[in-house]
Sequence to fold (608 residues):
Amino acid sequence: MRRVALYTAGLTMALTSALAMAQGSPESLLPPGFERPKARPATPAPAPAPGATPVVQPVPGAEGAAAPKALPKTLPNGRPIPTLKELEAMTPDQLDELLGLKPKFDMPPAARRAMKRVGVLAEDEGGFPAASLGKQDPRLVQAVLTGNKGRLVSRWGHILLRRGLASRLDAPAGMNPADFAGWRAALLVRMGEGQLARALVQDVDAGNYTDPLTNAAIDAYAFTADFTGICPVVAVQGGARKDADWRTLRAICASFQGDGAAGMAQLDRLLSENAWPKIDLLLAQKYAGAAGKTRRAVKIEWDGVSDMNPWRYGLTIAVGLEPPAELMRDAPVRYAWAAATAPMLGLEARAAGADRAAAAGILSSAAMVDLYSQIYGQSDIKGDWAAAAASLRTAYVGESPGERMAAMRSLWDGAPNAEVRYSRQVLTAYAAARMPVSAEFADDAPDLIASMLAAGLDANALKWAGQVDSGSLAWGMLALAAPGRGTPVDGGTLDSFYGNDPSDDYRKSGFLLAGLAGLGRVDDATRQDFAGKLDIDLGRKTNWTRLIDQAADANNRQLVVLLAGVGMQGSKWEQMTPLHLYHIVAALNRVGLTAEARMIAAEAVARG
Fold:
């Protein structure tokens, strides 16, 4: 209250000064000449002439006097003058903003970061060159970033696109660098890469935020259940926004900064206005109470709640609760992705999310092994997850190859669907690499090879080349994954693969041809003959194929990666076409991303 009183006194002085300025300089009531008395004359001044009228200043308000101007209704900054009651309800940040005391930047000029090369992955760390998109049409770059829905069919495509988005990049000429960072971060959030999106938005000073970057930051912090992380941005941006999401964040941040009473009052006001669903505001109150010093008992009841949204999910796990199972049963996959890396969730909930996140490319094989190792070390975890962790341990350290192979089979075949099965193959990649190359396990070779290639262990997978039959599924993956091939694939071997292809509409055969053609491992005559058998036209042109081909012609890796991401959108490989796969693999191969092209092509055959 002492600070509020000081602000009130200051505001009163400001109003008084404004009124005085509005009335002009005060006028003297003395006759002319008396403002600055002259020196006393040596001789008495002559008396005024008889009948002369003395000059006297008119009394204010009398006829002929200027009337005072009306009291101003706004502050010098144009804001309406609040009442005393409104002043008492304001937080210190709101008072600073009202009186124009809040600077755009809260750091000295020497500490501010430049807007060039925004990102978290430098070129010498595996990122792409900073100037990759500098000369590109900003409209094209914006359309590619905002038009991608974020879910890709390929695990390796996801990994490659994530690398491109995280690189330290200059914005295209004519594009606001903050907007560029915001669109990249927003796509990362849609891809399930909340932590990386949060790191990207944190690479920009709060005073440089624009609407796209602010929106992306809100989504990134909500995805990671880190609602207080955006408080520095909220403090600098202040009342720039009036929507319910922003007002809720301001209330949470007020509580976090020590003014819990004001923060709770703002949340109560939002609740009375029905600005947000009741369940969300109750969760926000519980979070604000935990973040600040104000304690309030908040009871969370899920009766009548029929769906889940990102804020609701983030606030729920942030306050130590688990969302009701019935709300999560048919929830979008983004919540599983968020759960996989949420440190506040239990290991079983994280493992359930990881079983989908690994197939998407969000988690590495090493991260999956670490998670299952923690489950194995927790004696209080029982049931299926404990059994899966024990099987993984056996897959790595079983006494015999047969025992290790049986453990891997139990993990793969125990998966409820193809997506989880592939995640389990990511999990067992290094265990598969330790298996001896033997005819005893020839029937398991396709799964072992797919598992190794899921983690990029192509050298280990190629050890099986002498044990697999020509034209088999295992051969097809190795033909694509091999770093180099001296001779092109002949038509007879392709026909053998076609004859053994169990996929619908010979999808795997189409992907094999597209991958081999993109890598230049099949001659034109064989390509055309096999394409005719499959009834596909790899030469067909679309706007997208023209763009990615032009980007490859210009040797622009970054743009090729962004366009490849557009072409790989989908939730399952059935949505990918041989035409798209061909142009993606060919473009990546031409710009020097051959390793990524090989892994994407091999994955297509494995999962197609």
Observations:
- The chain is about 55% helix and 0% strand.
